[in-house]
# Entry
Amino acid sequence: MSARNDPRYDVLFEPVRIGPVVARNRFFQVPHCNGMGWTQPRALAALRGIKAEGGWAVVSTEEVEIHPSGDCEPFHEGRLWTDEDIPALALMADKVHEHGALAAIELTHHGASCSNHGTREVPLSPSHRPIIYHAPVQARAMNKRDIREFRQWHRDGALRAKRAGFDLVYVYASHGLSLLTHFLQRSKNDRTDEYGGSLENRARLLREVIEDTKEAIGDRCAVAVRFAVDELSGQQGICSDGEGREVIEMLADLPDLWDVNISGWVNDSQTSRFAKEGYQEEYTRFVKSVTRKPVVGVGRFTSPDTMVSQVRRGVLDFIGAARPSIADPFLPKKLQEGRLEDIRECIGCNICVSSDYSSSNLRCTQNPTMGEEWRRGWHPERIAPRGSDGTVLVVGAGPAGLEAALAAAQRGYEVHLSEASTELGGRVVREAALPGLREWIRVRDWRVGQLAKLTNVHIYRDSALEVATILEFEARHVAIATGARWRRDGVGRENGYPIEGFADSGVVLTPDDLMDGRAPESPVIIFDDDHYYMGGVLAERCVEAGLTVTLVTPASVPSAWTANTLEALPIARKLARLGVTVLPNTNITGFSKGRALLVSQLTGAVSQREARSLITVTARLPNDSLYLELATRRDRVYRVGDCYGPGTIQAAVYSGHKFARELDTTPTVHVRRELPLGIEA
Ligand code: ADP
Ligand code: SF4
# Structure
């Protein structure tokens, strides 16, 4: 049911004053990384501008370095080292202003969090310490002159930010990543001068920098502090019933706004597998009781009722969002227009986070246009009209097929979507039934909901199409989105040849077998040579079924790639808690008579391990026979999603979207390139 003009949500659209500026509503896009940073200012300006267009009242940058001694390379963050950096950031502020929002900038010096890989400067820290990221580099203890210089750099950064047009300037003390946090942390600060020892002393630099910033730009710009009230390490660290609370009490009304969260990033941006919407409230709810200044907080908020509840109960003044604003840059506008069902809800998978770790354009499972606004000209809510009158036939209704059908239909094509099974959603339906992945079903639900609104889409369930039927159909364009299946032969990253005894053993199962309902028998070995979530998730499922599980992986930790989605540690902890035996750095080279042949990759030692079921999670093969046959019989037939190249759900959605965008155009692999400012792109 539509909630058009629903007065329940009015409170979210009240303007709120932040020092000298006024936010038009309570929707606040907090700073978030994007993999682009200083390397792609035009692309970032377009990305942030679209958030402003979508109704966010405040749109922030990511972390912006203020000095070469705090250089985040190889990560691409913002950069404001000198006046020469002002024009690039001004592009973003201008775009945000074009749509009536406030532009915020998060100034930061990374101190002992960065190795200064680019500038080769020795990192700075309150005391001598190794840097946080695992590089063989130490930060040196700052002397008083260093501290004075740091204050000057921050002040210069604030003045430059003001000249670039920003309305809010952040002082950053969160995620355990900022020099100001390191001064606060007892574990990193053993100074004996007035900047060490008591909490008051350790908070001195934070206080001074807030005061400096207010003094420098406070006449026109608001000063925000981003502060992690809890590091989840108990009383020995900063915690919300200890020093985290005391810092806020000490500085209560000094900044114009508190942006509060928990730290480090692994705790702040937890996936839906490990935390539910609003998970930070228990740590941050005290803040409003100790300050009169507005408070913003995050918690992967996508439900309007939860948002209203946060405000009404006095937990937050602003609904802070990074991921929900990535999944749907138009979330506020849709809510204001009563279009709740159109909101593309974040699924909490953290594929967006992996863009920062890979220093590549931001991407999102739910929003295929994210990061492509400038270089491909994609807008999340607008799409070019169709390029011909012909019909489009999409075969397969997984994430790729659903997205292809939706985007093609939005372009105005007459679309026919045929799905072999009764249920739409393909792999998403199957995977969302696995432990912890329930929210992933939103990938299907949103698309099915949007398709239902269109009159030019015809959906056929229980309709497995064959070559002859497709040829008879005479559609102008045919997209084959028939997905992929997990291999049974063990070929993967480590083993380039089929593993002896796998394919014909009768006890070797694939993830598809389990998702089809096959029950493995104890003891189970899971061979994870895929390294993303599937191996670990199946281990959980087998333990839930009461089975004894050993997870064997050639990687050094289970689900190794999930380090890029901030999940590697929580997954390892969970498997340990569940009693799963993990054998890292181990390959499987054969299976016979109920025993797997294990080879240690460290010593070469060979051993055997019993398994009544062996689940092999190595790689997938595309279901492309339909495509290959059709391609010899007609033109304008395309593969999309896993059928083209098995990958993530995000990649499948993107592939389906790209197919639809490019219909009746001449596709090119060359996208618009960012050239240095001053050289036209
Ligand atoms: P992707 O991730 O690329 O979208 P999925 O595996 O999730 O791929 O989805 C593929 C979908 O295609 C499944 O729902 C499957 O039932 C459907 N499918 C496979 N073969 C056919 C076919 N011949 N006709 C119609 N649907 C098919
Ligand atoms: Fe949410 Fe996943 Fe998109 Fe990130 S990539 S915004 S977690 S749906």
The mean pLDDT is 96. Residues 486-621 form a domain with the FAD/NAD(P)-binding domain fold (CATH 3.50.50.60).
